[in-house]
Amino acid sequence: MYVVDSLMHAIDQLQGLIFEDVVQPVLYQLGLMQWSDDLFDGVGSALFGALAILLAYLILRPLEWWRPVERWNDRRAVRTDIVYTLVNRLGIIPAVLFLVLTPMGAAIDGYLRFKGYIPPSLEQMFPPLLAFPLLTFLVYVVVIDFGEYWRHRLQHRLSWWWALHSLHHDQRQMTLWSDDRNHFLDNILAAMWTGAIAMLIGVTPSEFPLVLIAFRLIESLSHSNVRLGFGVLTPLMVGPQYHRLHHAVEHAQAPFDRARGCNFAVILPVWDVLFGTCRRAHEFPSTGVAGIAGPEVRASYLHHQVIGLKRLGAEIGRMVGWRRTGFSAAIVRD
Description:
By secondary structure, the protein is mainly α.
């Protein structure tokens, strides 16, 4: 863990330097020093996000150049996904999630402790883990990944959640940037889900960013435009071809419709094997959402967000209308 400790120390040093020399003077001039603690943590979150972006680009972009599945002359959709990545990992999304979810998590934790329930950490449940911090970290990843598998299945199963998540599946030019192509509300729901699991199993605030980096690197790999098929690593880790089958256009149609789907795993394919959602094939299919009316979504970030809200509103309206119709029919029958 020496490398990890050195990395954490370097980030802490850089976080303090940026805050003291750049952020704090601005807060002082604007009379907003009451926000200093929150923004100090926000600087750290942005640095971890920048690290995840840098690692993904340095490792995966050469692979995309070397063995691409597809080549495109018009890369506007890819550039929009780059904006998603920068916003989601460096800018507005982390700030809002931090300001909204951190107080919410603190309030829930305080209430549970007031009622006498203190969530046990994995080390408390399995004391031998105390001597193996790297193994403990890997167990955290496995437990959270199990939760991510079921969250992903719900994103496809629940029609109102699919209305938001479909924005992610609209992309027909999948690259390492496509992982962050999500609606703002979808990101909030995902963060609440993952944060709750992390809190329940005792992941500390200092460990959680490293867990997120591990997830983001593998998710960037699985979305990358790289011709890497089912090889030796496939039973151990989700790869580009494995996840590309999940994004295939054909899954908007039977027998692979969106609700059933396949290859929902985020990191470990074993969950798909255990729960019957694994699909192996040797092709690299086209990606997108054939089941949603209208042209391919190739608009700006803000336009995407509006489209997601319209889809959600339409689905909620359909659900409410169906319930009213069913209720009225029941009254007539009675």
